[in-house]
Specification:
Ribosomal Protein S5, domain 2; Alpha-Beta Plaits; 4-(cytidine 5'-diphospho)-2-C-methyl-D-erythritol kinase activity; kinase; EC 2.7.1.148
Length: 288
């Protein structure tokens, strides 16, 4: 039996630098792991079957689940024909911009590489990860990184202090594809100052990191769901250093000095709809 944590991510900054010939957007985003995680347990299967059980009704339990797709992809690319039973405990809110499916997919790749003794090197795992989704390569390693291209061109960055994070997840999900389609219909607005964010991270300066938060998709998702602006303002009023929507949303995070302070901020968010979670920034995830 093998058990692995699959950590959620937030985007400290997210900019779109253009549209690629293959239809994807050219991203420039600073991604950051947080302590909030799903849990995957791998155990032996008597036959060669791959089976998945999940404690959440919000994600598909069958072949459309990214965990299942990761297992199939590994078998297609190796001679392995072994089976596995995977149980997935979901704690990361679904369709929230927190990369839950990507984190699970990365943990499945890394976990099965060990469980099936495949011995695939990190570079091969990383290219398989990119097949499963733009955020999956980041999730293999986690920590703090600049991601470019579709998200697969990663530059590791210095680890930040374990700042506290308040997550506010409104009671609905959004489709990432729909948000990008809406972005394409709008005139381009100013993007975040990625260089300033990188400098703040180099200096490991929490206040500067908080000041430099920016996400070019936030006004897009907020135009579809104005409550996102209300949540961001509520986090600031409650004492967060700064607040921002993560990824394509709709989850909004507030950064705080530490996890205890995040707990105090969360306790003041009495009028915010949806789920409130308290967590902290996390370092590299040792999954790979
Ligand atoms: P992204 O921005 O990559 O779409 P997200 O954090 O906004 O990520 P996810 O929680 O990853 O959203 O869910 C996106 C979709 O992926 C959901 O509609 C869900 O049904 C599907 N999905 C497939 N496998 C999983 C999984 N293991 N966990 C969560 N969602 C999954």
């Amino acid at each position: 039996m093998l058990e692995l944590a699959a950590h959620a991510k937030i985007n400290l900054s997210l900019d779109i630098k253009g549209r690629r010939a293959d239809g994807y957007h050219e991203l420039e985003t600073v991604m950051q792991s947080i302590a909030l995680h799903d849990r995957l347990v791998f155990s032996a299967a008597a036959d060669g079957a791959i089976s998945l059980e999940c404690d959440s009704g919000e994600v598909p339990a069958g072949p459309e689940n990214l965990v299942y797709r990761a297992a199939l992809l590994l078998r297609e690319n190796t001679r392995c024909r072994r089976g596995v039973r995977i149980s997935l405990a979901k704690r990361i809110p679904v369709a929230a911009g927190l990369g839950g499916g990507s984190a699970d997919a990365a943990a499945a790749l890394a976990g099965l590489n060990r469980f099936w003794n495949l011995g695939l090197p990190p570079a091969v795992l990383c290219s398989l990860a990119a097949v499963l989704g733009a955020d999956v390569p980041f999730c293999l390693r986690g920590g703090t990184a600049l991601a470019r291209g579709k998200g697969e061109l990663l530059t590791p960055l210095p680890a930040l202090p374990a700042m506290g994070v308040v997550l506010a997840k409104p009671p609905f999900g959004v489709s990432t594809a729909r948000v990008y389609a809406a972005y394409d219909q709008r005139p381009a607005g100013p993007g975040p100052d990625t260089a300033a964010m990188l400098a703040a991270i180099e200096q490991r300066d929490p206040a500067a990191v908080a000041r430099c938060l920016g996400n070019v998709l936030e006004p897009v998702t907020a135009s579809l769901h104005p409550v996102i602006n209300d949540i961001r303002r509520a986090l600031l009023r409650a004492g967060a250093m700064n607040a921002l929507m993560s990824g394509s949303g709709p989850a909004v995070f507030g950064l705080c000095r530490d996890e205890r302070e995040a707990g105090r901020v969360a306790a003041r968010l009495t009028d915010v709809p949806g789920k409130i979670l308290v967590t902290r920034l996390a370092g590299n995830c040792p999954a790979m």
